[in-house]
């Protein structure tokens, strides 16, 4: 095997083998098949990158197909959100398809199965059917309705379609093998009665196909060559193939289902049911809450499409489920933002700094570099004045030898500006510092070319000019769950692990250049981390979300 072949993942190896065995390359077609019953999450992002990535690598079309077979849980809102997420990640689909497009064909094929004696109508209760199902070690028993005549089954199935029966009174089941070692092959349900409005077909139908019946047949109708699913669908493959056996025309491409492992992310949940609980019970503000593992939540928090694609590429695909540390995702985000995010100054825990020998009423506009990673350096102007805000932690009245920020009697450089020296402090009645007084070296301005400006001091701190600073609401996020695998322990409700301190809202001050920033604009607040503009932000009230820190502090805290 060549080096190139060794680098292929197991899905690519399957595709290469199929091509060698005669599948024409122009017959390759993939699909991403979400159910529109919730917002997509980070696990879906990996599946999107896999399917669309294969489409790019093999120059093959990829369909976006909505498996909209359960109208009680599906909404147009979810369809729109899914399309938005896929586009935002940077992918384009060839065809936009819906399982509901195929309802008539699926019904017609179900009639064919009845005519072949391979499907029957059952009117037992769900409890009765469950008892007859057996166990993994004991075979099931046949339904008393299993041997209904073809004519009776056809009549009942048509009456089901015509809306003559209430919900739950009848189902259509495939007639396979009640003794099969695969429980899914024990006469699975193909159709159930649901008098519910469908977001696309309205009230045209009151019977809806089950996922297993609709999925493979939809793949076949779209001529999907490789139907890629997560591992929980491995037991479904036998049923997938059985259904295809009964409608397959050998002049067409027969879809092949293959499975890959779900990649779970630490300190999150990726069950849509559990994510919905978090939303409905208001543990979060919505599907796009920046603490959520949804793609919309990650987007709002400031994660970039490139970083998520790189994360998916980094973790790859595997045959066994495993837990990926969220720090790896944050590393990918940090790596991308480092290249593209402008550097700006903001102060989140302010204390007032007065430069006593700076002229009263004077202001300067100093040059500040936007991003040192730029090939051609660009600059912006930042205002400087007598009164500034600095971070409270950047000053200590009495400091140890390794504290290289501002103290009384020592010097520090203000970023892009002057060297200052701490002289005195003013305190309130409780002993808290309310003002720091310092003097500046007038000849030490950064980039002025004077000998004094080249003078080296051990520390540099950031600042904002008080007369020019803009107040901002800053939302600081932590892990939504304190446990790395909150839904692993079946004895404990996953909500028990919700972090009560996952959101901290503070008031900070930013340089005035950020007034014109727009939703999702990214910035590095120097020395503080990466932030983005939230959708709640406007000219009257700036709002920023903290995307990720400058380094992985969580790992260090965890080790301690």
Describe the structure.
- The chain has 560 residues and is α/β, with parallel strands linked by helices.
- It has 3 domains: 24-260, Rossmann fold (3-Layer(aba) Sandwich), CATH 3.40.50; 272-342 and 472-559, Ribosomal Protein L25, Chain P (Beta Barrel); 350-462, Ribosomal Protein L25, Chain P.
- The chain is built from 14 helices and 29 strands.
- The chain has a 7-stranded mixed sheet with strand order 12-27-28-29-25-26-13, covered by helices on one side. Strands 23-20-21-22-14-17-24 form a 7-stranded mixed sheet, with no helix packed on it.
- Strand 28 and strand 29 form a beta hairpin.
- Helix 3 packs across helix 12 (305-315), helix 8 packs across helix 9 and helix 12 packs across helix 13.
- The radius of gyration is 31 Å and the shape is elongated.
- Mean pLDDT is 94; it is low at 554-560.
Key descriptive features of the protein:
Rossmann-like_a/b/a_fold; Glu/Gln-tRNA-synth; nucleotide-binding; seven-stranded mixed β-sheet; alpha/beta; Ribosomal Protein L25, Chain P; Rossmann fold; 29 strands
CATH class of the largest domain: Alpha Beta
Adjacency order of strands in the biggest sheet:
12-27-28-29-25-26-13
Q: How is the biggest beta sheet arranged?
A: 7 strands, mixed
How many domain modules?
3
The value of Rg in angstroms is 31 Å
| Second-tier CATH architecture of the largest domain | 3-Layer(aba) Sandwich
For CATH, the homologous superfamily of the largest domain is named as HUPs
Keywords: Aminoacyl-tRNA synthetase, ATP-binding, Cytoplasm, Ligase, Nucleotide-binding, Protein biosynthesis
Domain tRNA synthetases class I (E and Q) anti-codon binding: 460-534
Domain Glutamyl/glutaminyl-tRNA synthetase class Ib anti-codon binding: 341-441
EC number: 6.1.1.18
